[in-house]
């Protein structure tokens, strides 16, 4: 009997583990439409935990009267139903899902409902990220090839200018060779910056809030006194395994960009200019084709003018900038640094609310 009981316990643990590793959100309801069980994907979907939702009505999570009526009808009639590409209203957002509702009965005859929700916009995001990462790697390979072709003749030009300078007796003519050497060096530095850091990541155990505090201190030396920085931390985030200097540089580039955009914005009063640095934990998150059990999400939010939708599609590409004085390299370098460590940067923007989200894997 003990062996059978242990076997059943093992099977139950396996079933729970399987549910928590599904991409599909699964919710089990009783006949009063109270939540009996939700998996990890559903916790992310509803932005709530099992502890907060257990034995609570589904209406506290799902602000969609029409759908709740349809769920109740399925329970009463014992007929399942499926809806494709349905827009549903949660408590704090609207999403598009494929939803399946299946009435089930226990061996004791108790009636239950099994809800399965597959978030379509999440799948689109994963597909978009995979395409972006593939394009980014292609562009980086192209840049390396171009850099090799450009730097070789630049070296020849610089060497020839130096030899020519030695042969010139007129100091005024020598000034022209110095101009040539100076411009060649400038072009070489530009090419190197386009490629980003060429050092391999040196990951160590790292507290993400140490990085944000370090960046905040570095910004105090900049002319950003009119921009208020607000911190909204999740203290439960464990340490990540990341290259510290890479992460500091990436966060600094993004925060500095946001600060400069705010400082150039005359329509916002100085005391209203703010940047929010927010950290949260996400579970079962895909970065490209790799699924992570836990990731740290670091949001950098500003209330500046925003970035156009067309620009958002290209903003991480080298030499693409929306600012007159920008080089178009800061965000490209930041994306490269985060990508080298297995992470990703996303951007969502509208007027008055721009969010750069750094997704950082947590290795356990």
Walkthrough of the structure:
The chain has 364 residues and is an alpha+beta fold. The chain folds into three domains: 2-124, Beta-Lactamase (2-Layer Sandwich), CATH 3.30.450; 135-195; 204-361, Heat Shock Protein 90 (2-Layer Sandwich), CATH 3.30.565.10. The protein contains ten helices and twelve strands. The protein has helices spanning 2-20, 40-46, 50-53, 65-77, 120-167, 171-195, 208-219, 244-263, 309-312, 330-340, and strands at 25-29, 35-38, 81-89, 94-105, 111-119, 204-206, 228-232, 240-242, 274-287, 290-302, 344-350, 353-361. Helix 5 packs antiparallel against helix 6, helix 7 (208-219) packs across helix 8 (244-263) and helix 8 runs antiparallel to helix 10 (330-340). The two termini are 36 Å apart. The model has no long low-confidence stretch (mean pLDDT 80).
Sequence of strands across the biggest β-sheet: 2-1-5-4-3
Structure summary, number of beta strands = 12
Low confidence ranges: none
* Mass-distribution shape: elongated
Question: Helix/strand/pairing class, anyone?
Answer: alpha+beta
Mean pLDDT: 80
What's the arrangement of secondary structure elements?
Blueprint: H1 2-20, E1 25-29, E2 35-38, H2 40-46, H3 50-53, H4 65-77, E3 81-89, E4 94-105, E5 111-119, H5 120-167, H6 171-195, E6 204-206, H7 208-219, E7 228-232, E8 240-242, H8 244-263, E9 274-287, E10 290-302, H9 309-312, H10 330-340, E11 344-350, E12 353-361
